[in-house]
Amino acid sequence: MSIPLIIILVLILAIIISLIFLVFYVKGKIERFSLRFLGTKNIVDGFRNQEIEYSETPKSLSGLDTVLLPKINKDFPNINISEIKSIAENAILTYYSSLSEKEFKDIPNITDKLENKIKENIKSNKAKYSKIKIHRTVLNAYDNKDGLCKITLQTGLEYYKDNDKVQDRLNTEFIYIYDEVKGNISLNCPNCGAPIKGLGFKACPYCETGIVELFSKTWLLDDIYQK
Description:
Layout: H1 5-38, H2 43-56, H3 65-75, H4 81-101, H5 112-124, E1 129-145, E2 148-161, E3 164-177, H6 215-218, E4 220-226
Antiparallel strand pairs: 1-2, 2-3, 3-4
Helix pairs in contact: 1-2, 4-5
């Protein structure tokens, strides 16, 4: 027994109406979601606006200057934190310039470990970096144990990676090895050559010659990495 044509047409019409209703229902849901969370009914425009806003908003930094600075000053009374931050920022600018031009550019007082890392990154990098702008740099961490001191800074910056604007956050780590047994870097008395192992010393414990710690000569930049 064949189904009457009228019934088939009614069923087809019902399916079409249901699909139309479903499309409008889903469309309304998407528009309400987009309006609530993205500020516009057009979800494509909403995500595009979010992407633009994300590329324009600097990343937040984990700054602990007020907590860490007294600890660092206790161990290194003559240290200049502003100078450290400036060295870190210049190193970052040189690092991205090296990546872009595919040529290692000298960064003063870096470890062999970091130099090798940068050279490897240059080989694998295919992007071009331009219009690099540093927002600010903060103290992020400080460790002093087992003969090794480490200062970690965190820098917020923006740049264009090829044609895309990027907000980024990089950590830079500086190390100071003051135990000759556990490390290979030490501060020595300029008069008698004796090792100055205690941090914060203002005079040689052997000949009593005054000691002036120069940051650029006693610390090394050991790492640069995204955070």
